[in-house]
User: Fold these one by one.
Assistant:
Number 1:
Amino acid sequence: MTTAKKINKQIKIIGCGKMASAILDAWLKKSIFPQNIYVDDPNPSEWLLDKKKIGLNLNTKADIPFDYCFIGVKPQSLNEIELKLKTLAKKNVTFVSMLAGIKINRLEGIIGKDESIVRIMPNLPAEILKGVTAVKENARVEPKQSKSLAILLQAFGEIVKFSEERKFDAVTAISGSGPAYIFLIAELMTEVGINLGLSYDEAFKLVKHTIDGAGSLIVNSPLKPQKLRENVTSPGGTTHEALAVMMNKDNGLQKIFLAAIKAAAQRSKELSEV
Ligand SMILES: NC(=O)c1ccc[n+]([C@@H]2O[C@H](COP(=O)([O-])OP(=O)(O)OC[C@H]3O[C@@H](n4cnc5c(N)ncnc54)[C@H](OP(=O)(O)O)[C@@H]3O)[C@@H](O)[C@H]2O)c1
């Protein structure tokens, strides 16, 4: 592990379950000393408890000047940590919320309108430094804070900055929930492989590296996905046969994806209106 690019910021994390642990794991692997991280979580995982050995501060009462406070509880637990957030206000902390559906104005109502508050929507591949995080800052975030936050977030993947918070329902439906769609495709392709006579190990190995390779091609090729698809589809060939079914206008994937992802965006909208 290189120490050349360590980020020297004091970070508090309130609520460290699946998502915040994925982010924390990436930071510890790459960019932040564990001694600079202060986690509050009532029932820490074995993984978190183990990080105490390398210096992570877990459920301590340290009153130090934090640069960032990452909020990683479930949206429905936000009211439980209101007091904790209020005590961190007026101390030049940048608050970063990853809570799906919780709007910036709700956070401003709790923490204060004059506080720097950022809403993010990360996704699970952050764990392997391949996340993509949507970012929306409130008007109080200074360019300097924004720049150093970008470095922190880029430690676990790419970022996409938004000026309109209303786009977060679409973001949640695309990249927040998106990994689950790809996991489902992996499950289904593996099942079909088994159905066609492959063993689980054979099918799964073929599927996972196909998805990994195709994903890398999308990221690294100058060609758009449509062109990549057309390039591997010869008329009358095997891929053509499969795509004729998948792209059927009446009951193909386009309709299913539209309905499914719209349902996710609608759910995100409903949750943010609660
Ligand atoms: N998972 C994803 O892919 C994903 C993607 C984007 C955004 N998010 C957002 O990230 C947030 C966390 O999601 P998650 O999937 O990581 O959920 P999670 O695994 O349930 O994590 C939440 C953590 O907060 C802890 N907690 C509960 N009450 C607390 C309190 N009063 N003080 C401090 N910690 C408390 C929970 O402990 P207990 O388990 O003991 O209750 C748990 O460890 C959510 O707001 C979600 O919308 C998640």
Note: The longest helix spans residues 200-220.
Number 2:
Amino acid sequence: MVERTSLSIRDLAVQFESEQGVVRALDGVSFDLQAGRTLGIVGESGCGKSVTARSILRLVDRPGRITGGRILLDPGTPAQADLVALNPDSRQMRAVRGGRIGLIFQEPMTALSVHYTVGNQIMEAVLQHSGASPQEARARAIELLREVGIPRPELRLDSYPFELSGGLRQRVGIAMALAGDPDIVIADEPTTALDVTTQAQILALLRGLQERKRIALMLITHDMGVIAEMADDVAVMYLGRIVGFAPVMELFKAPRHPYTRALLRAVPSILAAPRQRLSTIGGAVPHPGLRPTGCAFHPRCTEALEGRCAREAPPPIPPGQAGASCFLAEAVA
Ligand SMILES: Nc1ncnc2c1ncn2[C@@H]1O[C@H](COP(=O)(O)OP(=O)(O)O)[C@@H](O)[C@H]1O
Ligand SMILES: [Mg+2]
């Protein structure tokens, strides 16, 4: 089934400028989000995953700045809008935030206040994005809490966030993200702060909601296990670029980028011998201000081509196509 493209990111570039110089946090990022599908975005810490999420919602704060590219909502339709062209504080952008694109944070308290009850905060979010009456907003808040699997929602409405467990609090975070009935949801490491059992429950909840509401979900994680569980397609990020893109099965079966292979080797496998040491990727992600020449991964790459990868940058992957931004992948393609 051909799905509707909800969001198209093209050649997105974001820079942070400081006295020490210019940091290119994102450099030519392109991908699509499709209704009813989950795009997993994976990469080590510092690769630009959160900056991508915040850029889409126009929440990148100074000294950060979008310096190029387009973020097209409803691309190819008469309603198409380029979010890069909007003022982050405009009415239109505030309506997009929450109303079209919901955001789920790693730490739900980012979106919640300690001073108000859960019910007040969800009702407020409902009212912001609809013409509901206070009574309707209250009914909707109860319905949202029920949808995210919170038992006895009528009573929970009066709880303060600090009275809830981490898992319940993240469920409230999800309810907040859904309060404006968005058709696109961005979840930035939504289960990283949770224990494994709760993590599995929250992922199951997210997947159920995504499927039922045909949401275009962008799921950010550093965890290939979460990717395997959740994603339809996967974009692998390294130092502000997408270096690998593929449907999830293809990515796991035949990873084409050495960085993707390294990330996969670092995943605990049920097939691995019990005490076998988990492999890790040699070296660390360099600071984006100290971007290596050529292919940015070459200093850590065990397969780098002598004389080439340090000098030449492999071309980006055309959006929507499976592939790897790597000279080695070109050879086998
Ligand atoms: N507020 C900021 N000020 C300066 N640089 C930043 C800021 N936020 C992010 N960056 C830069 O952008 C890079 C990517 O960050 P981020 O998107 O948060 O990575 P992650 O993939 O871990 O989510 C960081 O390594 C950092 O260099
Ligand atoms: Mg992050």
Note: The mean pLDDT is 93.
